[in-house]
Amino acid sequence: MATFFNEMTADESAGNGAVPRPHYREFCHWLSQQPEERLRRKRAEADLTFRRVGITFAVYGDDAGTERLIPFDMIPRIIPAGEWTHLQRGLVQRVRALNMFIHDIYHEQHIIRAGIIPPEQIFKNAQYRPEMQGISVTSDIYAHIAGVDIVRAGQGKFYVLEDNLRVPSGVSYMLEDRKMMMRLFPELFASNRIAPVDHYPDMLLDNLRSVAPMGIDNPTVVVLTPGMYNSAYFEHAFLAQQMGVELVEGQDLFIDDNTVFMRTTRGPKRVDVIYRRIDDDFLDPLAFRPDSSLGVPGLLSVYRAGRVTLANAIGTGVADDKSIYPYVPDMIRFYLSEQPVLNNVPTYQCRKPEDLAYTLAHLPELVVKEVHGAGGYGMLVGPASTQQQIEAFRQRLIAKPDAYIAQPTLALSTCPTFVANGIAPRHIDLRPFVLSGQSVSMVPGGLTRVALQEGSLVVNSSQGGGTKDTWILEN
């Protein structure tokens, strides 16, 4: 039977059962004093508030309806200061290397010439954008906002599971979870030194303003959304409101004199930085998909001229593709001349015959993912699948091996979670949000996602996962 690292408790070697880890002792003492009825009442209060505020997540194709609440769990995930320092150092290192990689592949291509990454892995990648070749972007920053998924496995070691560099979402839930915990249990924040996260919108706005085109002293920033039917629309509206900037759709913007303008009641207003939450293909119907009604005709030409900043940059997705993920440690060594602080999960690239053979022989024990997939879709979790599901996936893998990677089924760490029948362990991950501009920064913490189904390893909201507040304890 697999053993899982428990974030809250450790097994006592003397045989006295589980004892709280040092950074959880105060919380565990508080929790032991709470009547279960109070916790149930507080959870109901949280659900009612989230529903009233409209903190929802759209699930495409869900028969239950277009939107639902992301379940919120009241037992926080707590990380001590020393562990966070280690994580932060590794995240900054990783995102710096990824930005250097994206700049390199659209310019000198040193890493390809050095033979570190096969050229077909980049140039045949669905996320590679030849239109970006040779384009200069402000400060050579492409991934202004990165959401890096971290898991803890085995005896408690951290691993990077994936890099989200296109339009990473979830930060609004990080902020709302903290507000909810402070509202429900203010006494916990009086008795624990918990690092704040509520300044994230200010950090994000400062970061976006810092990468405005050259010569713009007082840049205008907007958030570009596909509209209210997008799964993360709540977050788009939330961040625009928190930053005090306009939330716009493509039809609100137009191009004139090689400049982006926003339509306002006072007439056109120049736009300098667009925090876009629209995929590359839909940004400019003149350059990408001609049937897109979400973007702005002519936007790419303004971008090429360096007269607007897009965050994140067009073409960034090539670096968060799962077929590129195995090469990130090599990028760190190549660009920074450093050893990676955070390790990748061991990965089999099914385009390689020997890796494919291994994967096919061990499907019941592996997790297999589409290289372009996201949201927990298009994947096989071998140990949780039926023989029929495994055999059906085997045929997909044989038909198109270069579309998949495989990884060992990690023994993801667990955190006690308040479920229907009381408090029980559930598997979790962590998505910190890394901002790159004139410097690389992040708030202490991130979004902890929790797999609410017993035994499930899939934490994605689209697959029924929930969220927890993440506490970084200050020394």
Spatial gap, N to C terminus? 37 Å
* Count of alpha and pi helical runs: 13
Strand order of the largest sheet: 5-25-24-21-20
Please tally the β strands and state the result.
25
Helix content: 25-40%
InterPro entries: ATP-dep_Glu-Cys_Ligase-2, CP_ATPgrasp_2, UCP005522
Protein name: Circularly permuted type 2 ATP-grasp protein
Pfam family, one: CP_ATPgrasp_2
Domain Circularly permuted ATP-grasp type: 76-451
Keywords for this structure?
475 residues, alpha+beta, Dna Ligase, domain 1, 5-stranded mixed sheet, 13 helices, Circularly permuted type 2 ATP-grasp protein, CP_ATPgrasp_2
Write a short abstract of this structure.
The protein is α+β, with helices and mostly antiparallel strands. The chain has helices spanning 25-32, 36-53, 81-105, 110-113, 119-123, 171-184, 186-191, 200-210, 233-243, 299-304, 328-336, 353-361, 387-399; strands at residues 9-11, 18-20, 56-58, 67-69, 72-79, 145-153, 157-164, 221-224, 246-248, 253-256, 259-262, 269-270, 273-276, 309-311, 343-344, 348-349, 366-370, 379-381, 404-408, 414-419, 422-431, 433-436, 440-441, 447-450, 466-472. It folds into two domains: 9-342 and 410-472, no CATH class; 346-408, Dna Ligase, domain 1 (2-Layer Sandwich).
